[in-house]
Amino acid sequence: SFSGHGELCARSRETKQFLLTGKEALTQFPSLGAPGGSGPGQGHVKQCELLQLSRKQRRLCRREPGLAETLRDAIRLGILECQFQFRSERWNCSLEGRPSLLKRGFKETAFLYAVSSAALTHSLARACSAGRMERCTCDDSPGLENRKAWQWGVCGDNLKYSTKFLKKFLGQKRIGKDLRAKVDIHNTNVGIKAVKNGLKTTCKCHGVSGSCAVRTCWKQLSPFHEIGRLLKLRYDDAVKVFSTTNDAVGHSELAGPHRHGHSGKQPALPRPTDLVYVEDSPSFCRPSKYSLGTAGRTCSREGNCDSMCCGRGYNTQSRLVTFSCHCQVQWCCYVECQQCMQEEVVYSCKQ
Ligand SMILES: *[C@@H]1O[C@H](CO)[C@@H](O)[C@H](O)[C@H]1NC(C)=O
């Protein structure tokens, strides 16, 4: 269940100006510039200036009304999902240390690339179907009765457009021997694929009392939390790779360890769904240029305190929390609640 996530979102919304200060550069992904002044109602060209974009990206942004806002939404979506998925890990995806992390080849770097590209793909496809972009609209791929669906006022999420646009926007080129560039592109594509695999066909019947005389179908993206959860599982099983020259093809490619039941002289290629990395991660226990360390982090005693606190032990503190209780619906139309208090024990990692 994602009930905890709803709270996270609400809290994060209040602090987003603090969270997103523009230091969180994503090398090939856009990031947010200085906060402030970026509200709706400003011209979209102006909004493009507020994002940190490459020259080519800025050109594309200016040409596409609606894109700047969609990019901003996507960056937030990716960051919040990352923080949610890593809330009980030593590395909690805070923005502190992110620029250094993105230059390395850790598993965490892989996740950041994948979740960012997934968020961009997802937000762009949604923006198309919601009519927030000028140059794209509902999914019009053949096979489904999309045109008919439009008639009924349903609009499929346009993943085809968003994927194509994103590849152009990120400017993926074939890069000869550069291992890191290959790894980044691979992980970016894992993110795009995760969104694609979550695409579901939804159908609706029309006609007298459910007779289904007319059935319309359209494609719908799964909620972004599902994609985030999938990518987190991929992070847990990420594959360490190195560069190898495939003599048969004559160029270098990524190779991982042999998989179970897989033999032969050639090392196994990572699957298109595997997140890949090239360097072992630091422990993230102590403050470093990659994170603030885990001192002061809350943990759960039965769960992750030992690993989160890196063996330093934890403090136990009890505190009173208030919550709404004994709620009753009053005629008409509001809910009246009492405030109850409860003692709660909080564990947090020692220095
Ligand atoms: C991540 O952990 C640090 C402490 O190590 C804390 O200051 C920060 O607020 C946490 N960030 C999130 C998003 O939970």
From TrEMBL:
SMART domains: WNT1 (SM00097). GO terms for cellular component: extracellular space. It is found in: Secreted, Extracellular space, Extracellular matrix. One of its GO terms (molecular function) is co-receptor binding. The keyword Glycoprotein applies. Residues 252-271 are annotated as: Disordered. Gene3D superfamilies: 3.30.2460.20. Its main location: secreted. PROSITE patterns: WNT1. It comes from the Eukaryota. GO terms for biological process: branching involved in ureteric bud morphogenesis; canonical Wnt signaling pathway; cell fate commitment; cellular response to starvation; collecting duct development; embryonic cranial skeleton morphogenesis; establishment of planar polarity involved in nephron morphogenesis; kidney rudiment formation. Keywords: Developmental protein, Disulfide bond, Extracellular matrix, Glycoprotein, Lipoprotein, Secreted, Signal, Wnt signaling pathway. The keyword Transcription does not apply. Pfam families: wnt. Ligand for members of the frizzled family of seven transmembrane receptors. Belongs to the Wnt family. This is Protein Wnt. It comes from Serinus canaria (Island canary).
